[in-house]
Amino acid sequence: MAAVGFTVSSASATAQATWTVSPGGPFTAHSGDTQLEVPNAVLRCTDADAAGDLQSGSGLDGAGIGTIDSLTFTNCTVAGIMFNVDTSSTPWDLNVTGVDPNNPDRVLGSITGIIANISDPSGLCSATFAGPGGATDEGTVTGYFDNATSQLVVQDGDLTAYNANCLNIINNGEHAAFTGTFDVSPAQTITMD
Hints:
Blueprint: E1 18-22, E2 25-31, E3 34-38, E4 41-54, E5 57-61, E6 66-78, E7 81-86, E8 92-99, E9 106-114, E10 116-119, E11 126-130, E12 139-146, E13 151-157, E14 160-165, E15 177-185, E16 189-192
Antiparallel strand pairs: 1-5, 1-16, 2-4, 2-15, 3-4, 3-15, 4-6, 6-7, 6-8, 7-10, 8-9, 9-12, 10-11, 11-14, 12-13, 13-15
C-alpha cells in the first residue's frame, strides 16, 4: 500500500515512547508487486504508487506520525479478470509501534483507516475490503520498514471481504492478507527519543 523509510537508533520501544523524524514532509512510495490473498485466489497488481506526508521534529507520538494521502494500483487481476481498485477513503494514518527486537533495522508499524473497493469493468467481480466490524469499519495492515534496504514490507492485517459479488472467487467474511514491498523516496529517519 504505502510507506515511509525509517532508520532506527534504538533496539526497543515502550508504549510511552516518543519519536524524532527528520526530515519529514512529503514522500512517495512504489511497489512493483502487491498481493491481496483470499482463500480461493490472489489479487495481484503489478504497480502501486503512494504519496503522503510525515511529521517532522521530536517528541512525536507514534500514532498518526504520518499519512498516506493517495494510493493508486495499476494492472490488477484476479483469476484472469482485470479490476480497478478504489482507495478514495484516504488519507490513511501511518503509525510507529516499536522496533523489532530481533532486528534493530526494522521499525514495526501499521497503516490504519483502510476501506478499499475493487470492481471490474464488466461487472463480473466486485468487493469491499475493510476491518472485521463490517464494510464501513476501517481496516488495518501491519508490517515493518527495513532501513537496511529502504523498503516498507507490508505483511498482513485485519482486512475482511464484504459486499462480495465475484463468481465465488471472493466471499463475504473472508480474511484478505495484504502483502507488498514498497521503495520509498526520499528516505526518512526516525529515532526513539
